[in-house]
Amino acid sequence: MLDRDSQQQILDILRNGRLSTVFQPIVDLRSRDFLAVEALTRGPKGSPLHSPAELFPRAERVGMIRELELSALETAAKAFCTLNLPAKLFVNISPMSLVSANAVIIARDVLQRSGLRAENVVLELSEQYQTEDYSALVSALEAFKQEGFGIAVDDLGAGYAGLKTWSQLQPDFVKIDRHFISGIDKDPIKHEFVRSILTMAQEIKSRVIAEGIETFEELQVLRELGVRYVQGYLLGRPSAIPEITDNIHRLADRPAMRERALANRKVIGALAQDFPSIDVHTRLEDVVRLFKAQAGISSLPVLHHNTPTGIISRQQALEIFSERFGPELHGRKPVVQFMNDKPIVVEFNTPLEDVSYLLTEDVQQDLIQDLIIAQQGRYRGIAKTSALLRAITDQQISSARHANPLTQLPGNVPINERAQTLINAQDEFWVAYCDLNDFKAFNDVYGYALGDKAILLLANLLSETVDCDLDFVGHIGGDDFILLMRSEAAPELCATMCSRFEAQVRQLYDPAALSNRGIWSPDRRGRQSFFPLMSLSIGLVKPRLSSGLRADDVSALASEAKKEAKRLPGGGVYVSDARFPEVASHYLRATA
Fold first, then answer.
1. Do 91 and 7 fall within a single domain?
2. Bigger pLDDT: 192 or 456?
3. Are 530 and 524 in contact (CB under 8 A)?
């Protein structure tokens, strides 16, 4: 009886057209504009079936999911056409509907009635409805692709079927499940998961969308990882008329991003050339005249109220004018009719690596096109792709030259450069000198291979514990590491490192050593001596910032603090008051 009532309710909704659609923006971080909108279907207002979480499972239970999804597609398509957005429409659909008889023909007819082309629609498959007949699904999706539809896999990471679907279907888009986005700024595991997804996506030419973003911190981490397309309440809530919130424009102003960019000074803004700009109403004949007068200009940004809206290249403008009757036909027309209206616009403080990823992530991207540099949406200059590639190459060569060959962490030169940058910026920081106790005895007994493992264990532990947005990890050599920390809780973080190392290093010892809590080995005088299990000592100091302070002074302060830390029995953190009288000397002992 209940199913009969449900069936009647679904029939009533379909016959009387009682579905409605709201749209949520999917945002392109590079252009800060719509990539697409996702259509979210709603049932009758005031009804228990208003929520899609109730509506669609009810339709599936009574065998009417296909009819409901087709009606939802038509409703969404008609509403989307009225918006007149230069974007794609994402529509959720189940595998059952896709593999049903004549699915492609029916979907095409639905779109034709709505006035929408298949090329503007992306069919989004969710794990909510799973299928075991992947061969039938692959065949069905191939037919939809040939018709022009895009394909997306939703909720990637929510279960095994998501990765399986991705590997077999090779969709145009993959949407990472919101579980891996929520709190990504505080969870290194989620951070690495998303990084891995981006790597795999690049290999199979899928574009990644991160959904469920609710905080600036989440958005910042995703942007720095190289995620280009994002969705969530922070950027826009579902609405009949979707809008992107102003939060997208505030992203570049976040203090952590600005400080990080200024500290590293490896941002796209450093490559900006002061090319002249033109207005959208500038005549094409004036554009050509400008190109001829200034031979060094390869392209001109087209602005509207100082905001980049397009770009026109020298080759493009001169080709139009070289056509027969080109000057007569087009000379007095505004440049807006001829420009590339999808320029590559990047924020001034965007790291070079992020810009490189944005360019190479899109296989259809024109890598010859000049980049427009903007700051808070306002034009700042032009950067050439060749200059970007040269700068990245120089940066990689420099990094490789100065990185430790075992851990690949920055060595002495980058450490000193970063310390001097912080000093010059008068940005207060802690310096921590990390050193292992009884490492030589361990290396002598177990050999250099396990000795290297101990050093790598420490390197990974330090990198995972610090705040990657605020702190810097460097490797001097051997078992000596330097941390430059702007985190307010630096002493507590260092104490955590000591306790974590004490717990993790046990995996490198044999059972006898663990039972005895140490090993026997010759000391520096050649006498057999007992050495306890390795521990970590950290000397921590906060230099007093002054105009005369240098990176060498910081190094000397850290070395003195480390000497004191090495005297602590069993390892731990020594906080020095040298050059920082406001904090008394004290000990933060590592817990067992």
1. yes
2. 456
3. no
Residue 278 and residue 219 share a domain: no
Q: Is 535 helix (H, G, I), strand (E, B) or coil?
A: strand
Tell me the pTM. Answer: 0.49
Taking alpha carbons only, the member of 249, 505, 268 closest to residue 395 is: 268
Both 438 and 323 in one domain: the answer is: no
Q: Which of 221, 250, 279 is the last residue of a domain?
A: 250
Rounded to whole angstroms, the Cα distance separating 235 from 27 reads: 8
- pLDDT given for residue 128 in this prediction: 63
Structure tokens at 357: 């990823």
Q: Which amino acid is at 441?
A: A
For 170-235, the DSSP string reads --SEEEE-GGGTTTTTT-HHHHHHHHHHHHHHHHHTPEEEE----SHHHHHHHHHHT--EE-STTT
Q: What is the pLDDT of residue 542?
A: 92
Res. 316: pLDDT tops 80: yes
Strands 528-532 and 535-541, by their bridges, are unpaired
For residue 515, with 0-12 CB atoms within 10 Å meaning exposed, 13-18 middle and 19 or more buried, which class applies?
Answer: exposed
* pLDDT single digits (tens) 464-484: 888 876 889 999 999 999 999
- Tell me whether residue 255 is in a domain: no
Give the DSSP letter of residue 429: -
CA atoms of 456 and 437, how far apart (whole Å) = 15
Those residues whose C-beta lies under 8 Å from the C-beta of residue 358, and which sit 6 or more positions away, are 30, 226, 228, 344, 346
Is residue 3 predicted with pLDDT exceeding 90? no
Overall domain count for the chain? 3
The tens digit of pLDDT for each residue in 380-406 reads 999 988 888 888 777 666 655 667 888
Q: Are residues 422 and 489 in the same domain?
A: yes
Measured CA to CA, the distance from residue 239 to residue 23 in angstroms comes to: 5
Q: Does residue 245 belong to any structural domain of this protein?
A: yes
Share of the chain above pLDDT 70, in %: 88
Is there a contact between 226 and 358 (Cβ–Cβ < 8 Å)?
yes
Mean pLDDT of the chain: 84
Is residue 354 located within the same domain as residue 458?
Answer: no
Q: Which of 547 and 72 is assigned the larger pLDDT?
A: 72
Half-sphere exposure of 56 (CA within 13 A, CB side): 19
- What phi-psi label fits residue 205: left (phi over 0), alpha (psi between -120 and 50 degrees) or beta? left
Cα 398 to Cα 407: distance, rounded to the nearest angstrom? 16
Q: Is the pLDDT of residue 362 over 60?
A: no
Domain that holds residue 61: 2-250
State the SS3 of 430-481: EEEEEEEECHHHHHHHHCHHHHHHHHHHHHHHHHHHCCCCCCEEEEEECCEE
Residue 546 scores a pLDDT above 60: yes
Query: What three-state secondary structure class fits 274?
Result: coil
Q: What's the mean pLDDT in 50-73?
A: 88
User: Which CATH number does the domain housing residue 533 bear?
Assistant: 3.30.70.270
**pLDDT per position as a tens digit, 227-273:** 889 999 999 999 999 999 887 766 544 444 444 434 444 778 888 88
DSSP 8-state assignment for residue 507: G
